[in-house]
Write a structure and sequence with these properties.
The protein is built from 16 helices and 13 strands. Helix 2 runs parallel beside helix 15, helix 5 packs across helix 16 and helix 7 crosses helix 16. 42% of the residues lie in helices and 16% in strands. It is an alpha/beta fold and 370 residues long. Strand 5, helix 7 and strand 6 form a beta-alpha-beta unit. It is globular, with a radius of gyration of 21 Å. The structure holds 1,3-dihydroxyacetonephosphate (13P) and iron/sulfur cluster.
Length: 370
């Protein structure tokens, strides 16, 4: 989304002045305000967050303070939309920089998903009829636009995050013969394999730019899990060679990666999990342990700083920041907070009521299962 440049006043502040003004605005707003910070945010943002966490935890944290008037979400657009969908109407959710999107979420849009569903219907028959089970249920990763969550909610489907994907997809298979999973093929594939599916025999890849997603009708009929051809540009940088290299260099190393990494990387790792799971496992390991981590660099560096007794490094020596998460600069946070104080809130994320209604069904289904 488009973000107008910051007023000059904010770009000219020193980092210390910005920090002080953020603190002051936060103090003035008191209980009216909650600041949420995703684990990939830079330290200069995280220090102001009331809660930090992964996508699931932050969606749950957003619900903890119904008395708050404002949630300032230091994360990316789909996270702020999800917070707006699940919180009561009087809570205003603010994204400090509207240009903080997610390139993976942008890999699926409503037009493409509707077209996919129509083609699946032409192949499998009427999808709105339920016998013992649905023929197919849609599951969307939380890293998707609100209108895709609504598409899913309207069709009895559900949202998942990286920390509950196995539970959610398992639930979907209890209620349907097939699952359409979008937009992240890697999380979908890793989850399917964890649930005992074969990555080729039981799955197919849906390329939205090809008729039938690039599949034959037989392949669609055979597949249990249809994976959308989307990916995260940060996590697909990790390779099996990097795991092998880390083990060669540090024979006692433990490798932990995010499930958005390719299957070949996940299969070589010792542990796999959401950002909060990575934090929990690394923090609870004894001093003296060595960790190679396959996720965004701000989180890896913070873990290294907060756990000086352990050797912690990124699996990718070229380091890989999430450029959109990085757009939440402290100057934007300062600008957003001072505008709330002035009574002129900026960058309020408002999901249209009809989209909200169906998207909430899909998110509430997930929260009930989590
Ligand atoms: P988590 O839910 O694990 O924090 O993941 C969000 C994300 O965007 C990872 O790239
Ligand atoms: Fe999106 Fe990847 Fe950034 Fe996560 S790390 S917000 S999936 S681009």
């Amino acid at each position: 989304m488009f973000q107008a440049p910051l007023p000059k006043e904010y770009t000219e502040l020193t980092s210390e002045e910005t920090r002080e003004r953020i603190r002051k605005a936060k103090q003035t707003l008191g209980k009216r305000l909650i600041i949420l910070g995703h684990h990939y945010q830079r330290d200069e943002i995280i220090e102001h967050a009331d809660y930090r966490g992964d996508s699931l935890k932050l969606a749950q944290d957003a619900l903890k303070h119904p008395e708050a008037e404002f949630i300032v979400f230091c994360g990316v657009h789909f996270m702020a939309e999800s917070a707006d969908i699940v919180t009561p109407d009087h809570v205003k959710v603010i994204l400090p920089n509207l240009a903080a999107g997610c390139s993976m979420a942008d890999m699926a849009n409503l037009f493409q998903v509707r077209s996919c569903w129509k083609q699946l219907e032409e192949t499998l028959g009427d999808l709105s009829v339920k016998n013992e089970k649905w023929k197919i249920l849609p599951v969307t990763y939380i890293n998707s636009a609100a209108n895709l969550k609504a598409f899913v909610g309207e069709r009895e489907g559900v949202v998942c995050t990286s920390s509950n994907a196995s539970k959610i997809v398992q639930w979907a298979f209890q209620n349907a013969d097939k699952v359409l999973f979008f937009p992240d093929q890697h999380l979908g594939r890793n989850t399917g394999v964890k649930l005992g599916l074969h990555h080729e025999k039981d799955m197919c890849l849906w390329d939205p730019h090809q008729p039938m997603g690039g599949n034959s009708a037989d392949k669609i009929k055979e597949s249990k899990l249809i994976l959308w051809k989307g990916h995260c540009s940060v996590h697909t940088r990790f390779t099996p060679e990097q795991v092998i290299e880390a083990r060669k260099k540090y024979p006692d190393v433990k490798v932990i990666v995010h499930p958005e990494c390719p299957m070949e990387v996940v299969q070589l790792a010792d542990e796999v999990g959401s950002t909060s799971t990575i934090v929990r496992i690394v923090e609870s390991s004894p001093d003296g342990t060595t960790w190679a981590i396959g996720t965004e660099i701000n989180l890896v560096n913070r873990l290294a700083k907060e756990n000086p007794g352990k050797k912690i490094f990124s699996l990718d020596p070229m380091i890989c920041p999430c450029s959109t998460m990085y757009r939440i600069h402290p100057s934007f946070l300062c600008w957003a907070l001072e505008n709330i104080v002035k009574g002129t809130p900026v960058n309020v994320i408002e999901v249209p009521p009809k989209v909200k209604h169906f998207a909430k069904l899909a998110l509430d289904r997930m929260l009930a299962l989590s």
